[in-house]
Amino acid sequence: MEETSTFSSSGAEAISRQLDSDQVHVVLSEEHIRDQYDTQRVASELISGNYKRIALQFPDELLPISVSIYRQLKRLVGEGHDLFVLADTSYGSCCVDEVAAQHVDADVVVHYGHACMSKTSRLPVIYVFGKKPLDVVGCASHLAKVVRSKEEGSNLRSVLLKHDVRYAHRAEDLLAQIKEALPEQVQLIYTPLPFSSAPSPSNATITTDQGECELPALVDRDPSHCIVLYVGDESLGLTNLLLTHSEYEVYSYNPDSSTFRLESVKTNKLLMRRYAVLQRARDADVFGILVGTLGVASYLPLITHLRSVLKRAQKKSYTISVGKLNPAKLGNFAEIECFVLVACPENSLVDAKEFQRPIVTPYELEIALKAEPSWTGRYVLDFEALLTAYAQKGEDGTCHLREDSEEEDPDQPIFSLVTGKYRQARRYGGQPGSSHSNVEEGAESTAVAIRNQENALATIPDSAAGQFLLNRTFKGLETRLGEDAPSVLEQGRSGIARGYQDDHR
After folding, report:
1. CA–CA separation, 289 and 271 (whole Å)
2. Is the separation of the CB atoms in 368 and 282 below 8 Å?
3. How many whole angstroms separate alpha carbon 303 and alpha carbon 306?
C-alpha cells in the first residue's frame, strides 16, 4: 500500500493528466445533480444560516461539473447570496481550504468530494460527500460469516464499523442489515458522520469532554473481544485505520469488487516501515517542521508544542510552509536532516522513497526524542488526541501543554540502529544551567569565519544553516563591484531554427 503522492494529489499530476473530450464537457441532468450532490439540502442550510458569501470547494475530479452545481445552487438560494468556486486547494483536497475561502471573504465553505473530517478553526463547513452504490446485503452476509467462524473458541462482543464518506448515504440501511445479521450478544459500535460542522477555535489550551488529559483508548473494548469492519476500497483512510487500530483484527469490504478480506496482515509491514523512519529521525539533529495544513484546528498549538519539544532536546528546528510536497521542494533544504509533517490524519503519512530525507509524524517525533524509545504499537494521528496526551490539567479545568522533566546526559553517545555505530549528537540553543551546548542561551556566538575575499571576519550565529554553508564548496555568486567591465554588445544570429544566418562567418 505505497503512497507516492502527498496531500491527495500533486500539482504535476494535475498538469500532465490527459483528459478525454467527454470528461471536459460533462452535461448532467438537473435530477442527477440534485440527487447526487444534495443541492436542495445545501441550499436549505445556506438560507437558514443566512450565509451571504459562499465558497464552493471542489477537488480536481469534480471540476468539470462544478459550473452545473454552481448554477443550480445559485437558482435555489436566490438573490443576495454570492457563490465562489475554489478550483485549486492550497494543500490536500480532503481538507477544507479556509485560506482560499478567506481570500473571497466567505462566510461558509461547501466542501465537495472526499473529506478527512478534520475540524476547522475559522469557518463553518457543509459537507457534500457524493454517493456511491453499496450492496448492504452482501456486506452484512460476509460479516456474519466471520462472526459465526469466531463464535467457537472466541468471546467476540463488539464490532466497530468504519466506512468511506461516500457511503454515508447508505449508513442507516447498512446498520440495520448488520444488526439483523449479528447475534444478540455482539454489539455494533458506530459513530455517524456529520454533514456540517462548526469551527473549533485554535488556541493554546486544550479541553476534553471527560475532563481528563489522558490519551483516549482507540476502541473502548478488549482487542480480543472486538473486530473492526471498514467499508471502502484501498485508500489512505484504510491505511490510517490499520495503524491506529493495530491491536485489532481489521476486515475490509470493497463494494466495487464485492470482496471481503482480513487486512490486519498488512499492519506489521506498515509499522515496520514507520519504525525504520523513526530510527532515522533519532539520528537527526536539525529538523524542519512542515506546515501541511492551514485549515485544521489545533495545528498552531501543535507547531508551538513541537518547537518547544525540539528546543528542550537541544535540536535545531525550522518552520517551513511549502504547500504540496515534492522531492524538488524539500531538496532545497539540504541542511535539514529530518522533516516533521503537520497535516491532517489522511496526509500525515508520507511513505514515498523519492524523498531524500525522512518525513515523520508528530507522534513519531515524540517517540524518537525519548532517551529510551518504547513503542507499544499505539499510533496517534489526530491533533487533539496528541495534544491531550501531552497536556496537564490546570486549576481552571483546562489542559495546558506540559514540560517533560526527563533529563539526559548530553555527553552520552547515541547508538544508531541505522549505521550500527555510536554518534555524538550536536547541540543547539542550550538549556538553562547547561554547559554542554554549543552556545549558551542568551549568549552570542564567538565562532568566526572569513566573510569575503578581503579576509574580513564575521561571527557565525548558532545556526545549522550557517554551519552547513561553511562546509559547502559553493557558497553563492560573489559580488565583484567595480572589478568586471561590462561586455560589448554584439550582433547575434538571425533566421529560423532550421537555418540560422551568422553575420560573423
Report:
1. 22
2. yes
3. 5
